[in-house]
Amino acid sequence: MQKKNNLATKVAPIKKIDTLETATFDLLKGLGEDPKREGLLKTPERVAKSWRFLTQGYGVDPCDVLCKAIFKENIDEMVIVKDIEFYSLCEHHLLPFHGRAHVGYIPNGRIVGLSKIVRLVEVFARRLQVQERMTEEIASTLQHCLKPIGAAVVIQAEHMCMQMRGVQKNQSSMVTSAMHGAFKEEAATRSEFMDFIRGSL
Predict the structure, then answer these.
(1) What secondary structure letter does DSSP report for 20?
(2) Number of domains in the chain
(3) With the CA atoms of 94, 96, 98 and 102 taken in that order, what torsion angle do they form, in degrees rounded to the nearest 10?
(4) Catalytic residue check, 163
(5) 131: annotated active-site residue
């Protein structure tokens, strides 16, 4: 009886073709570069890893983030988290924009852990975005999941698509806001929130 040859040559698994790597390879060629030259050999792989990190927000349910740390508390005074730094990508040119988000809410018997508000901003920032939509998404998610008396978000950001190309104005920034509940309906409440964050704008 013939014994099995345990020294049979092992075949290395075929690497799955990554569409992000392929797209980067083609992009380099389209730019007139040689993707096979030494300095660019690993660029498609690096870019693919980078894009997965920069857009990881697509794989996260923002309500799940908040629901993991909601606590019952008899508090109805305004809660504000200021100066939440974020980095995102403009969906029109795939160039970065970055800035700070200011998030406030008025509890209605429930509060949410501080880090979860920061994480909520991060979830929406790690997607292809426009600042206007991102601002509204943060506010409406907070309002929907926590059900506070009101929720408010103000974002100020600088956009590389305007600073590196186009009009090339380096000192310009964009401010957007989204107000829900008491912040939208009551001018005094909205004004109080804006007074708290004014020094950060």
Answers:
(1) H
(2) 2
(3) 10
(4) no
(5) yes
Task: Annotate 96-145 with DSSP letters as a single string.
Answer: EEEEEEEEEEE-SSEEE-HHHHHHHHHHHHTSEE-HHHHHHHHHHHHHHH
Asked whether residue 69 falls in the same domain as residue 109, the answer is yes
DSSP 149: S
Same domain, 39 and 94: no
Whether residues 38 and 66 share a domain: the answer is no
The yes-or-no answer on residue 161 being catalytic is yes
Take residue 74 and report the two structure tokens written for it: 């008899």
Could you tell me the residue range of the domain that residue 44 belongs to? 19-53
Specify the pLDDT at position 15: 54
Domain shared by 127 and 155, yes or no = yes
14 lies in some domain: no
Q: Looking at the domain assignment, is residue 93 inside a domain?
A: yes
The whole-number average pLDDT for the span 181-194 is 98
Residue 90 annotated to the active site: yes
One domain for residues 163 and 180: yes
Determine, yes or no, domain membership for 3: no
Say if pTM beats, i.e. exceeds, 0.90.
no
Residue 7 has pLDDT above 70, yes or no: no
Pairing of strands 79-90, 96-106: antiparallel
Say whether 91 is catalytic.
Answer: yes
Cα separations in angstroms, 133 against 11, 54, 123, 178, 180: 49, 18, 13, 9, 14
Q: Which of 102, 129, 159, 163 is catalytic?
A: 159
